[in-house]
Amino acid sequence: MGVNLDDVRGDLSAVLFTESQIEARIAELAAEIDRDYAGRLPLLVGILNGAVMVMADLSRALTIHCEMDWMAISSYGSGVASSGVVRILKDMNTSIVGRDVLIVEDIVDTGLTLSYLIDNLKSRNPASIEVCAGFRKPEALRSHVDVKYLGFEIPGDFVVGYGLDYAGRYRNLRGLGILAPAVYS
Ligand code: IMP
Question: Is 112 in the pocket of ligand 1 (CB under 6 A)?
Answer without folding.
Answer: yes
